[in-house]
Batch of 4 targets.
Target 1
Amino acid sequence: MSDEFSQVINTYWEQLLYMLPRLLIAAVVMGVVWVGASRLRTWLAAKLSAHSDDPLLTDFLTQVGRWVLVLVGLVVALNILGFSGVVGGILGAAGLSAFVVGFAFKDIAENFLAGIILAFNRPFGVNDTVKIQDMFGQITKLNLRTTEMGTFDGRDISIPNAIVLKEPLINYTRDGFIRQEFVVGVDYDDDVAAAIALILEQVRLEPEVLTEREPFAVVDELAASTVNLKVFFWTDTDDYRRATLELRSRVMNRVKKALMAGGYALPPDILELRLPTKMPAVPIQVAMAEPGTLADPPEDPKKPAVKSGDSPGAV
């Protein structure tokens, strides 16, 4: 029994010694291929960046080139180890097993193929602000399987490439400009045409509003208490957050100050309170608020004091 065991051990040891040079060569080949793949990625990135202004396409192609080289190195290493028959069998059976593998890894294959399509023909670039379904943010990276997005509230989202390819995508920055709008209400007694002229004058004074695309304003609605004017203006989208939030806020604030300084009334909405017909009458008493309360805040110390006996309207 011990002799048979020793014979088996000796047989395996001899086979190991026979295979050891091939194992070392295969290990060296894989090490060289792995290091070469990293350097190939750096070299491809430098070459492609010099001839392309598209960082997403450059990054995608360098990833593909690296993994292709690793796959070639793996096939060479298997052939050195004497597994050429295994490699040939795998390649020969690829067609037979394509259906099974394709069904098992349907999503992975779909996302990979979608990534290839997006790399060469896609509706976005790095730092473009896009909306896909209910996801809204800036594109940061395109991988073999996913598209990376950073939202404006600090979240990082990995979206499968198949979703990006199949779902409607809204790009807010590709053309370089976008139209903004807001509504302001003036009193029915005000001169609407003069108010529109004043509003447009203030909009044009904002430096980041595009002058080659003229702003305009129209009467949007005859509301219960105001004539609502809708104002439109164009701005660039290098920084979408600034264009849509900060700039719009500055324009609205400028218009508000100008209208108030020009004597235009900005009345609040009128609320109508109706009581049930069968409900008894509700007595309402109007009284002056106590001085110093929230209903009657203290007077502004910057305003000149009114002497006793003088009427507020006296000149």
Note: DSSP finds eight helices and eight strands in the chain.
Target 2
Amino acid sequence: MNAMSTRVRRVVWHAAALAILVVLLYPVAWTIGASFKPSTDIVGSLELFPAEPTGANYARAAEGIAGVSVWTFFRNSVVLAGLAVLGTVASSAMAGYAFARLRFRGRGLMFTMMIGTLLLPFHVMIIPQYIIFQRAGLIDTFVPLLIGKFLATEAFFVFLIVQFMRTLPKELDEAATIDGCGHLRLFWNVILPLSRPALITVSIFTFIWTWNDFLGPLLYLNSPENYPLPIALQAFIDQTTTSDYGAMIAVSLLALVPVLLFFLAFQHYLVEGVATSGVKG
């Protein structure tokens, strides 16, 4: 009787899991099908796949907006996301190493103040930051979107790296110091390679958040040739009185590909980095 009850529970659990999976994947399947539908059939249509598939949506998406090709938007997103990953990983790793491995006066207070910035809403800083960048003549450039990434302003990522580096044995520092390593060589040759899971976790989150960022580019970028993909997607809705939903959905699917590939390539390190970064050594 117990064996039968266990089997029934397993069947029910797997059936429920499959039902949830279908619910989660249905919007993805509908989006894929809608990208091959005529725009007039997308709104109000409940069919999962088009009766007469068409590639016109992708052709219109490739043409871009206001004379700017969709590949220009892709290039801008790649540049922004790539530089954001580079800046965030480099600056957060150096700040994390200082907080985790070095001893200096005021370290605890500075670390507490850094964590306290997580409680400060981004919207509070929008107007002061915009005024600063406007007076510096940096509006309609990528500088306002990237400069903070190179200055370790992402407190969450610094905290994540600090927690990971604290799990590394202190004996590594002592052995490297005996071998004649200074802080720079210790950081580059010993600590940084061992921190790869945390660094890749930071890279994944930074890439996805920057790739999908809408508010930042909307505030600081004015020229269509500087727009990343999120702004371009919004433009497909507002460029005419009749929204081009077909092209918008096609661009949306194309925009998902880099994020999906980036995540699949490093998902193993993501789980490892998140699991170990919450353990204090």
Note: The radius of gyration is 24 Å.
Target 3
Amino acid sequence: MSRLPNQQRAALSPELTDLPEPRKSTKSNRSFLLWLKSWKRTFQQEKYLYLLALPGLLFFIIFKYVPLWGLTLAFTEYSPYLGLLKSEWVGLKHFQSFFTNPDFWLLFRNTIAISFLNIAFFFPMPIIISLLLNELKNLSFKKWVQTAIYLPHFLSWVVIVGICFLTLSGSGIVNKLIAESGGQPINFLTNADTFWAMLTAQTIWKETGWGTIIFLAALAGINPELYEAARMDGANRWRQTLSVTIPGIKGTIIILLILRLGQVLDIGFEHIYLMSSSTVTEVADVFDTYAYRVGIQNGRFSFATAVGIFKSVVGLILVVSANRLAKKFGEEGVY
């Protein structure tokens, strides 16, 4: 009877006219139910794949998303005795203190300069080495070279810097050779003019081999028929590299460059801290070391968190901007 029109319902019984019309399922509710049903079906069919992905999902939830709650430290005057919830809320006080600090522009200059050198000199090196390895015909020699250039990646920065001190210090091997040849010893480790170049050279030596892995995989995915067509057109090896190889890995290069831009202000604390000394502080002090020295060592945890948020926001802006620019030029981008 509830499905009858109001006039028929009134004719049967006047009291029925006061009853509300039955609710109809909205389109959004039906879509949600269909999606839920489809998801359940997919989960039952691929439950083992979801189980396999569970450890990685838990890792990101526990170590990436849960710690986001700690970002509120930047807006409070955090006290370990009061805890995060009871600490005084100060808003943007720490950000204002950071941006008005006389050392801000010095830190910004050093960080950008070191990051720019890494992008200009370190980022192309894995691409160049991958292209050279791709041209090797002797597989045994190619594997030996790959293994040799991979090894520095597995050494910690403590070991790398230790080797640097042993070879480049005043009594190191390099200065002994210079002295024996009649030259004057060079203060490599205390010279502010060569500090950035030394950092870049160490990064290239340590990480170039490891960076070739992705590019070698991209090179392996290029269709061999493209090379055959290029050879039929009379292209030599150099021309094949320019016309086939580099366009084939262009998408990978752009994606890695976009991701690299997200780390412009995050150049690594350990490496800079180990290489720093009182004689090179003017060129060695970056946001990471400043946050550790002023924020952590002095107990200003909220201030250190504000510095970290600033770095993350700048990285996010650069990634989003570079991704949009890449899509504007017809590339896929990161997302």
Note: The chain is about 65% helix and 0% strand.
Target 4
Amino acid sequence: MGSALTTIGLPVALGIIMLGLGLSLTVGDFTRVAKHPKAVFIALVCQLLILPAICFGLVLAFGLSPVLAVGMMMLAASPGGSTANLYSHLFRGDVALNISLTAINSVVAVVTLPLITNLAIAYFMPGDATLGMQLGKTVEVFAIVLAPVAIGMLIRKWRPEFADRMDKPVRIASIVILIIVIAGAIVSNLDMLLENLGQLALITVLFCLISLAVGFFVPRLFKIGRRQAIASSFEIGIHNATLAIVIAQTVLGNVELSLPAAVYGVLMFFVALAFGFGLQAAYRKADAAEDAAAGPTAERPA
């Protein structure tokens, strides 16, 4: 990875993305969870406990190298990305719940991401003093994740009209910068990426698919409404791969550590799209059957 891309490009791209998230958030997005406390609690349990456990099992089953194993665990610990809101909207999820989950996850990740990363390093790379997220690096994560979000929220509070005007340009800028930076990163590390693509493609696709399924079906098992379950599914299944890449390369200074997130960050869009259409098709048939059996005035279930 070229030093300019690593030290400047990636953090700037992530900073703009997180600033854009902040521009769309208000304090009400954090307090709104009171309307769906059960859905939020179940989604957080899935995100913080179930997914890391599943990822750990996949890493052991695939026999990844220690560095790639830690990279996968770091990815599992990353919060949902803002792209989850788009997918939730596309497939009729509860976007308001998505926004609240993203806000809460971004705050919680400041603690859980370093914790899970350190546990993974201790297990897969015991005695390695070159990695690890002690207090100083944890503070860096705090600054990378929350500082731009806080600035964006303050702008929205003090200058709401300006925040509304800037929302779309910031989103476009973040996408353009991110594409340029990731493209440059791929080109400069093409040999390393191709060397590991074979063993990372299957595990990242499986992890994404399992994450989406857990995010949807676990809430449904606990009688959470379908729209809330869809929101949970995409929030849990679409991780903030950019955050994992930035932490791996700029905070921990290890390019190989970022490879799982880089592969996941490309493939997750296609997996999530296929999952969404599959979910939509499955429930379209179920709704049609129930409507036919119950009559034309029957309401569809939550």
Note: The longest helix spans residues 259-294.
